[in-house]
Amino acid sequence: MRRGPRLLCFLLSAALVLSACSKPTSPPSFESPSPASGTVTGLSADAAAIASERGLSPADVAAALKTYVPSGKLDEAVMFASGGHSGQVIAIGIPSMRILKNIGVFTPESWQGWGYSDETRAVLEEGSVEGQLLTWGDTHHPNISETNGEYDGEYLFINDKANARIAVVDLKDWETKQIVKNPLTLSNHGATFIDPNTNYIFEASQYAMPWTGEYAWMDEYQEKFRGSLTAWKFDRAKGRIDVEQSFAIELPPYWQDLCDAGKGPSDGWVFCNSINTEMATGKLTEDDPYFETSTAARDKDYLHIVNWRKAEEVFKAGNFVRINDFPVIPIETAVKEGILFFTPEPKSPHGVDVTPKGEHIVVGGKLDPHVSIYSIKKIEEAIASGNFEGTDPYGVPIIPFDVALEAQIELGIGPLHTVFDDRGYAYTSLFIDSAVAKWSIGSERPEDGWKLIEKVPVQYNVGHLAALEGDTVKPGGKYLVALNKWSLDRFSGDAEKGEFPGTGPLLPQNLQLIDISGDTMQVIYDMPMGIGEPHYAQIIKADRLQSWSVYPENGWDPMTHSVSPYAVAAGEERIERNGNEVHIYMTAIRSHFTPENIVVKKGDKVHWHITNIDRAKDAVHGFGLAAYNVALSLEPGEHADFTFVADKEGVFPFYCTEFCSALHLEMMGYLHVEP
Amino acid sequence: MRRGPRLLCFLLSAALVLSACSKPTSPPSFESPSPASGTVTGLSADAAAIASERGLSPADVAAALKTYVPSGKLDEAVMFASGGHSGQVIAIGIPSMRILKNIGVFTPESWQGWGYSDETRAVLEEGSVEGQLLTWGDTHHPNISETNGEYDGEYLFINDKANARIAVVDLKDWETKQIVKNPLTLSNHGATFIDPNTNYIFEASQYAMPWTGEYAWMDEYQEKFRGSLTAWKFDRAKGRIDVEQSFAIELPPYWQDLCDAGKGPSDGWVFCNSINTEMATGKLTEDDPYFETSTAARDKDYLHIVNWRKAEEVFKAGNFVRINDFPVIPIETAVKEGILFFTPEPKSPHGVDVTPKGEHIVVGGKLDPHVSIYSIKKIEEAIASGNFEGTDPYGVPIIPFDVALEAQIELGIGPLHTVFDDRGYAYTSLFIDSAVAKWSIGSERPEDGWKLIEKVPVQYNVGHLAALEGDTVKPGGKYLVALNKWSLDRFSGDAEKGEFPGTGPLLPQNLQLIDISGDTMQVIYDMPMGIGEPHYAQIIKADRLQSWSVYPENGWDPMTHSVSPYAVAAGEERIERNGNEVHIYMTAIRSHFTPENIVVKKGDKVHWHITNIDRAKDAVHGFGLAAYNVALSLEPGEHADFTFVADKEGVFPFYCTEFCSALHLEMMGYLHVEP
Fold first, then answer.
1. Which chain B residue has its CA at the smallest distance from A542's CA?
2. What pLDDT digit, counting tens, does each position of B597-624 carry?
3. CB–CB of B282 and A597 under 8 A?
4. Which residues in chain B touch residue A485, judged by CB atoms under 8 angstroms apart?
5. Which of the ends of chain B has fewer CB neighbours closer than 10 A, N or C?
6. Contact list, B161 vs chain A (CB under 8 Å)
7. C-beta atoms surrounding B234 within 10 Å
8. Which structural domain range is residue A565 located in?
9. Does residue A134 belong to the interface with chain B, where contact is any CB pair within 8 Å?
């Protein structure tokens, strides 16, 4: 019965490796039944019949053809969206609206081994609060690193609103490299926003509170609660935030909301809006109103105008105090040094967005039907001439509204966030109207002036928008995505009519792709978002990304971007014991681990080191170990370590969790833990 | 400056509630520029121009039109796919291939609050091993509950290969309700497979090992290592596995692989294939071969043929032993009672699939180019007449291969898994050929006989297949999905050519939708799968699902499907202290929590109870509490509890993590922890 199994396996493996390494030269056969050859474009003979049978309107047909990406062709752009309280970042192809990858950031992610190896666990542990490991985050506002105001595709930054943290994702391998906990506060919102050359990542706090760790009741709100704007210095060479070169500015206890950094003529400034300038303290007695009411009492809140270049000088001059061992420029210093100014903005603002040329700042107020457009020139003139209408209770000078304002445009109810295209138009989401408004930037389209051009309904309660490179100095136009917060009636029907009744009570969100290339906006795709709740997104042209598909060398530690000191080469696999510490040096290659049988003693501390020595693109191995809660993902060339105490006796299978070859099921071994 | 903020808020909230509760009556305006009205179907005037501009071939156009689901229209079917080592289940719309939802199962999922409330944490803790909480799983084979062999859309079962666990998902609310840990073994594979009326969920172990907790070295492999097949009794009324009514059958230390339960004439049987009938022990010395070679030495492995009805009788008669406090029918008893038989199957088999009429069992062997089709009639005749060719080393009688076999068809290299359509065709994935083979079931299409009809290439290394209700007694035809394991060249290009170079070294998988309604198979959609590694999937017609969109009553505990004893109604919010235990009874409604300000003392044990008293579909509230690692998702009507010791002093914002209304940012409060 035995005839050459080794030869067969070798041939199979070789066939697999060869097929894995060569690009298929013939297109898939699904084009064969078509009368035309593969290179001819145009409609199929049965196109009209298919449209009719499936009930597609002419507009549906156009939309289908604008969004379909055929097998073997690539999306034009990638949208990086926050995952909300999933804690992750979601990469989506444009125009197909297909999810390319969910990147593990603040939440452990076993498919990627994120948070299970020693290296990745250490990144999560960096983000702990007082020793408490946090296993989730609330990601809100991703920002792609920029050079001269354009996306450079190198890094992605993302904040955790729930715990005031910032993460750095390296787009060379799409992995999170660093999580920094803000030492001053426990929630942020105006993050991550960067200046045009990614010197700083700005993080404004959201809910005012005493400095982290300090106790106060609400009767001390105005004295003890504070906001802050932290400027995290980014060290591009290291690909890390340099905490030692970072600092914060103390802010009054308003709830700072979104921010944006200036560019062009406004470079050097960062703008943040705010809510609860009422300094409401919420419901304390039966008669008190809730925050939702009491934070909306005043007609105006304050746009915060911060000179970060001057703040940097003040910080470098040592003119700060240390709070929780972190350098903070006090409000009085910020005022005295000309760092901090306010101007009124319509009540309950959300988005603050600098136009592509950097001349104007657009604020959308949720409880005001206008967008308010400020001029950086007018702001700078007012500051230079001391044209203030007094100060807020904390002494911050206020530039009069009508002095700073360039224009206001009435768009509809609930203007929220504004992005830009390549033709001088701006697009603002209208949360309550469930629509997107297109309007002209008067300074860039003098023929139109500051004017509402058109609205398109979306389905619905649209939050943020993302346009192709729409917040850079050179927007790409063409595509706009509405990140709608509710999706009812879109992916679920009426059970009584026999329709698919949905996905249970937790519905997906609905992201809608809008074609903005023509004279009128066209909604061309509805995308259910059932893996998180994206708040904000950026869309980068795909060819700006230069990621690796295989790690540069075998034994690569993605956290240091160098070969690990524990890297294992073929032939160097071994088990070393030193007292009750055992080091296992293992390799993985299609389709076996070496060693396959391992014995340790109960109570041993086990340090396990694995290198994937496969070099073919896509030749990923997973590693799962029963009962000890170990899950790794080892990309080609990658090395990972994990450590545990062998406190359970018995026999524990481990195996490759990726279907890596025809003999993948056989890629396993046993850990024997002796009593 | 103050003018009626409460009135404004009320109006805004009312507008929002009204808009949320009413279905939009007018279609979105994206149809407006079309010359035809909304009800006319057909091509758009610019269709050919768009196809030409985007380089779409006629086949691409047909594929686009077959898969596009317009805004406001619903997918026809839902595919439930395992997430592999993500530990989750992924629901995908067919034919749009859009991800509708990622359902948290074995891995905590903060977007859904899965694993963060007391109720959901308890489910994860049920799945612990010796007190070790496991925070991931390796989901492989989802099965939808059946009635009379058809999907009934009520429950979904899924296994964790890495730790030998089974989970039950309730499709009323798409939430996991139960995780059961197998007490005998630490890995499974042949799970979850059910009989046609969902009496039992079958779970075959994968890697043979001593019973959990026992130690042995490989020299005792044949005596101490064992496989098992566990029959988990499903109590449909309770929606739970009834562990007390469940039992296992001891199996030889082969590596049991996939299983399928019989139906029609084969109902009462369950079939499992196996690898490593060599009982190879892997590389122990320099000269030993790896498992990948030594497990493929024999030309044949054993198809396990198990009479589960007889096993049930034997179990109910008390004819079992207890191992790890679980009832196990020993091999000798199984043999003596006519429960367990073998027949040879081609080496290294993977899929074992019963045809829709239940007459035949199809086995694909990865290292044999054929599918082998067995006849249940012939198997039963052989058993009845005692037509055996001896036994395996454990005394299990072996039915001769040629006696049990109905037919063999040569399909190509690496046949892996077979599903069925409504026209008498079967579809088998070819892992190494990277193709799908269509062949005729001779007994159902006598005009064709047992014959290969056609192959279609896929891109590539296809693992399992899923066809519309393709493993039930009434397959739906029309759609087939190839779950390809590798995707290189599909979603990533060549950086040197300026193409999008991919998603980092961890590539998505590629799921391809194939139109099987015509004479030839057509690949019509490439779907990147970047949130997990699906192994197996089932596709159910959407109208069979009858899920809830709002919980039946306020205060609903999804884990008990009844109103929680801790449910909180409007007006009943309160804080109760008993010594150092504090109970917080809170409601959530757009857009506030009650209470908003909470004070506890450092060291208090806090029991926090929250009811979402919103009743509108999609009115979900999240709950995030800084620093204490709390993340909840409260669907309309849902109640949840969480418990923690307030060991950190200071002020901790909590807020609604779902963008639930225009005043969502204001839906917050403060937990004050007094020193």
1. B500
2. 999 999 999 999 999 999 999 999 999 9
3. yes
4. 658-660
5. N
6. 624
7. 25
8. 556-674
9. yes
